[in-house]
Amino acid sequence: LRVQNKKLYLATFAAVLGPLSFGFVLGYSSPVIPELRKISDPKLRMDSSQASWFGSVVTLGAAAGGILGGYLVDKVGRKLSLMLCSIPYVFGYIVIISAQNVWMLYFGRTLTGLASGITSLVVPVYISEVSHPKVRGMLGSCVQLMVVTGILGAYIAGVTLKWRWLAVLCSFPSCIMLLFMSFMPETPRFLLNRSKRSEAIASLRFLRGPHVDHEWECRQIEAGVQEEGLNPSEFKNPSIYRPLLIGVALMFFQQVTGINAVMFYAETIFEDANVKDSRMASVVVGSIQVCFTAVAALTIDKTGRKVLLYISGIIMALSTALFGLYFKMVLSNRNNSSNPDTWFTLNSASPGTESGISWLAVVSLGLFVAGFALGWGPVPWLLISEIFPLKARGILSGACVLTNWVMAFLVTKEFHDFIGFLTSSGTFWLFSAFCCLNITFTAFYVPETKGRTLEQIEAYFRRS
Fold first, then answer.
1. Which Gene Ontology BP annotations are present (predicted)?
2. pLDDT tens digits, residue range 362-377?
3. Judgement on whether residues 373 and 273 belong to the same structural domain of the protein
4. Is there a single domain that holds both residue 254 and residue 397?
5. End-to-end CA separation in angstroms for the chain
6. Which of 327, 371, 436, 447 fits as disulfide partner to 316, beta carbons 3.0 to 4.6 Å?
7. Pseudo-torsion of CA 216, 452, 126, 217, nearest 10°?
8. How many CB atoms lie within 10 A of CB 14?
C-alpha cells in the first residue's frame, strides 16, 4: 500500500503542476494590471478598457484550449497532451517578457490561456483514471488546490517582483511538469481503449504497486471499455446526454457566481474599496482560498460531493449579498458608478463612511472565496472527470471546458459593464441570486459519485 500510494501520489503531483501553472496565469493579472496602468512607457500603459481585455483575453485562449484539449486527450492520450501543453505556456511567457506593446501582452496572455484550457481538461481526466475510488475525490480536488496555490503564488510574488520578472517565475512550473510527466505512465483506461493490454498492466503495476491483483482491475476496466468512436446519433442516449447536460450546467453555474471576475480584479477591487494595502489584502484572500480548498480535498471522500456543493452555495449566496450591502452603504451617488474609468467609484463615498465599514468588504470577500473553495471551486471539475463515459470523455469534457471559459470571459469582460448598468451593489446581488440557483440545481440534478468506480458511475447513467 505504501508503494502504491507513493507512486500514485507521484503521478498526481506531476500532473497537478499543470494546474499550478494555470493558477499562475489566473493570478498574474491581479498584481500586474495596477502596475501597467501606471507604467511610464506609453506603448505598454493600459487604460481601463485595455486592462479588462488583459484580464479576460486569457479566457478566450482557454476556451480554444478546451476544444483542442478535447481532441488531443482522445487522439494522443492523457500523458502526451499534458506534455504538449507546456509549450504554449512557456512560449506565451516569453512573448510577455519581451513585449514592446499592449498587443504583444494580449498575444502572450492568449497563448498561456490556450495552455490553461488544455490543462483544465486533461489533468482531471488523467487523475480520475489513474486513481482508485477511495482517494479519487481527494486527488481530484488537488487540481483546484494547485490552481489556487498558483493564484496565491502570483499574488505574493507580485508584491516584490516587477511584471516581467513575475512572468519569468510563472513559466517555471510548466517546465518542471514537462520533465516529471515524461517519467509517468499513461492511464490504464486509455491504453485498454487502444487495445494495449500489456502496457495497461505495466501502468497499473506502477500506480498500484506489485502486491495488488492487476489482472482483476484490468478485467473490471475492460468490462466498461467500449469501442472507440462516438456516433452523433448516440447523443440521444441518456448515458451520453444526461452527464453532458449536468457537466455543462455545472460549468455555467460555477462561473456565474462571479469568481473569476473577483479573482482577476481582487487587487483592483480592494484599491477601489479604499483598503490601504490592496496587495496584501489580495494575498490574504488567496491564502483563504488555498486553506479552504485543502479542507475540501481532505473531506470530499467522506462527506460526498453534494454536501460540499450545498455548504459552498449557501456561504457564497450570503457573502455576495453582504458585499452588495457594503457598496450600497458606501456609495453616496450611484449615478457616478457609470464612470467608464473605474470599476467601483468609491471616491464619491460620504466622508468617514468607508473607514467605518471597510472591514465588511474584506470579510465578505473572504467568506465568498472560502465558500467557493469548499465546493463550487473543486467539485465541478472533479465531477466532469467522473461522470462521462470513456469513449466520449474527450469530446464531452471539451464541451464543458469550452462552456466554462466562454462564461469566464463573458463575466470577466462584462464585469465593468455590469457595474455601470446595475451599480456595484446590484452586480453582487445578481451573483448572490445565481448562488441560490446553484443550490437548487445541486439538489435536483447532481448525482453523488462518492465511493463509486468510474465504471459504476457510467452504468448508473446507462440504467437511467
1. D-glucose transmembrane transport
2. 778 788 889 999 999 9
3. yes
4. yes
5. 36
6. 371
7. 0
8. 21
